[in-house]
Amino acid sequence: MKSYISVWPCEAKSPGFPRSVVVLGSTGSIGTSALRVVEQHPDLFRVIGLAAGRNVELLAGQAARFRPRRLAVLDADGARKLKSSLPPGYAPEILVGPQGYATLAALPEATLVLSSIVGAAGFLPTLAAARAGKLVALANKESLVLGGGLIRRACRASGTVLLPVDSEHSALFQCLLGHGGADVRKLILTASGGPFRGRPREFLARVDAKQALNHPNWSMGAKITIDSATLMNKGLEVIEACHLYGLPVESVDVVVHPQSIVHSLVEYEDGSQLAHLGVPDMQIPIAYCLCFPRRVPLSLPALDLAEIGALTFERPDFDAFPCLALAKQAFQAGPSHPVVLNAANEVAVELFLAGRIGFLDIPAAIERALAAHAGTPADTAEDILALDAEARRRTLEDLTHRSAAG
């Protein structure tokens, strides 16, 4: 597939087993699910590096279980706490901060890097892994939202093979196998609709973080769960799909599917569609990426369509959930606009979780941030990080001022 972001995985030589694995974001929902997969198939993997943010206690437990030679944490205080929490006789190298994450991602002995750090913080480590020619299992969609073009160039230059971990993009990838891409009409991402599907704006104006975190189908981290509630997660996935498969935004649709059984579909030129179905558990796409091109058994129930009974589909409500349209507009506006979109969203979600702004203030803040952005160069990692920092500062100032004004 000529338009795919990296070498098409089916045309590349896959590393053998056991694979030396680095897990970036090991204490998050994706990271912990990945380690469950590893535990089920210990003959296939050697964990050589784990990275986390502030959850040092969980990281220490994971490190004691898998004994990797290197660990990484967010800051020096976390490194001290981690060192004191490790069992006697186990003294791995502890790396610190963004550069520590990037170093871990590019370890010469690593054959596979799972990039699952949440948010924009995952961009630099993903780029480092791509530049180092690793097999990259990508669960950090923000990496492509911020710098999809840069990562595409890095993959092509180094020969990196990138596999999408998100259930939707893994589904698209699997539905595209055996096709050259020229006969694809469009990609169709499915969305659960989150906890507020069918609710009007009047209701959404009154919801709080506890309600928004009550996702009906998936167990995810707080930030991704709020993004699912606003449909921003699906907007980011539209941008990710455009970068992964080299398609314009007009060729990527979204349909709401409350049961979360059909994970995505590909429509071909003859009007037929191929769909990927499975129970809503991230171990399935994670295991597919970690073991590609093999499939391995997992300790999960099989999909029983007769028990489910019915699968339903509906169009998104763009009025009640404007984040999806904002993401599409940002991608069309230019490469720097998705950086602003993501930065404003991350700031607004953090303030909503802290109870400082309302649910509908999230899309409103993003819309204002995009309207104020005239477009700037986003050709290098330095450009992207500088723009990200500036957009965060402006969004925080904007929301703090409005909150103080009442």
Structural key phrases:
Rna Polymerase Sigma Factor, Chain: A, 17 helices, single chain, 406 residues, 3 domains, alpha/beta
Structural features, described:
The longest helix is centred in the last third of the chain and has 25 residues. The chain has 3 domains: 157 residues, 3-Layer(aba) Sandwich (Rossmann fold), CATH 3.40.50; 130 residues, no CATH class; 73 residues, RNA polymerase sigma factor, region 2, helix turn helix motif (Rna Polymerase Sigma Factor, Chain: A). Strands 4-3-2-1-5-6-7 form a 7-stranded parallel β-sheet, sandwiched between helices. The protein has 406 residues and is of the alpha/beta class. 46% of the residues lie in helices and 14% in strands.
Alpha-beta classification: alpha/beta
Q: What is the overall pLDDT average?
A: 95
CATH superfamily of the largest domain: NAD(P)-binding Rossmann-like Domain
Q: How helix-rich are the residues, as a percent range? A: 40-55%
- Per DSSP, the total helix count is 17
Rg estimate, integer Å:
20 Å
**pLDDT below 50 for ≥5 consecutive residues: which ranges?**
none
- Across the major sheet, the strand order is 4-3-2-1-5-6-7
Report the end-to-end length measured between terminal Cα atoms.
53 Å
Largest pleated sheet: 7 strands, parallel
Determine the CATH topology of the largest domain: Rossmann fold
Annotated CATH architecture of the largest domain: 3-Layer(aba) Sandwich
Residues in β-strands, percent: 5-15%
